[in-house]
Amino acid sequence: MAWIYLAAAGILEIVWAYSMKQSEGFTKLVPSTITIVMMIGSFALLSVAMRTLPLGTAYTIWTGIGAVGAFLVGIIVLGEAVTVMRLAAAALIVSGLVMMKLSTSA
């Protein structure tokens, strides 16, 4: 169950990162509110996952899901550049996440 909480926390991190971008420096009410609510939810789910999972594993995977997810949202939704170097960097993050998951017995 901890892994489900962690995955959900990572997804909420992607949502808050995107809504933070849309808030234009917290100058727009609705995206700013979404950002804050999603941050609280993401942190809450991460804290529940950390009851079972090691700190290093949980935090690394949470930030990795957020980083790769925000990268993909940037490309797909915001039209950000797709370059070989950026794709390679994302692939390295994903490979690190897989290795972290495989190295954890919880």
Automatic annotation (TrEMBL):
Places the protein is found: Cell membrane
Pfam families attached to this UniProt entry: Multi_Drug_Res
SUPFAM superfamilies, alphabetically? Multidrug resistance efflux transporter EmrE (SSF103481)
Q: Which InterPro entries match?
A: EmrE-like, Small_drug/metabolite_transptr, Small_multidrug_res
Please verify whether the record's keywords include Magnesium: no
Q: Which domain of life is it from?
A: Bacteria
The record's Gene Ontology biological-process terms are: xenobiotic detoxification by transmembrane export across the plasma membrane
Q: Which GO terms describe its molecular function?
A: transmembrane transporter activity
Asked if Transmembrane helix is a keyword of the record, the answer is yes
A single GO CC term, please?
Answer: plasma membrane
Q: How does it sit in the membrane?
A: Multi-pass membrane protein
Write the record's keywords in alphabetical order, separated by commas: Cell membrane, Membrane, Transmembrane, Transmembrane helix, Transport
Q: Which residues cross the membrane?
A: 33-50, 57-78, 84-102
Family indicated by similarity: Belongs to the drug/metabolite transporter (DMT) superfamily. Small multidrug resistance (SMR) (TC 2.A.7.1) family. Gdx/SugE subfamily.
Q: What is this protein called?
A: Guanidinium exporter
What organism does the record attribute this protein to?
A: Afipia massiliensis
Q: What is the lineage of its organism?
A: Bacteria, Pseudomonadati, Pseudomonadota, Alphaproteobacteria, Hyphomicrobiales
